[in-house]
Write a structure and sequence with these properties.
two-stranded antiparallel sheet, about 30% strand, globular
Length: about 120
């Protein structure tokens, strides 16, 4: 490894110095960034704001665009800072996907809606 350079390996970028690797980032394929409210909330087209799904708990909240908490208003971050805590482990709704679709499961927990149904929770 050369010292003081940045190099690419597959989907990863690393920076090195005389002391070794300074840090790195790995690129991963996104799952919901092209959907309104990341397909994890309802979009008000009047206000342009998202109302993020909170059921099943812990639900979702605004992200920084990288899956961490932030101010984008996009429901792109799993909300692990509420009463119930923990990671997302199911699709949205008391009845998964409102009973009008199926859940893809881990890691994206995306609802695939039946014909005639839409939105992130297949409720419309």
């Amino acid at each position: 490894m050369l010292k003081g350079v940045v190099y690419l390996t597959g989907g990863s970028v690393f920076a090195t110095s005389a002391g070794g690797i300074l840090g790195g980032r790995t690129s991963v394929q996104g799952t919901k960034e092209w959907e309104f409210c990341s397909n994890r909330g309802d979009c008000s087209f009047e206000t342009g704001q998202c109302k993020c799904f909170t059921n099943p708990m812990p639900g979702y909240r605004s992200s920084d665009g990288y899956g961490n908490p932030g101010t984008r208003g996009d429901c792109g971050c799993a909300n692990d800072k509420n009463l119930y805590g923990g990671p997302i482990s199911a699709c949205v709704g008391e009845l998964a996907c409102s009973g009008h679709g199926y859940c893809t499961g881990s890691p994206s927990y995306k609802c695939i809606c039946e014909k005639g149904w839409s939105t992130g929770d297949c409720s419309s």
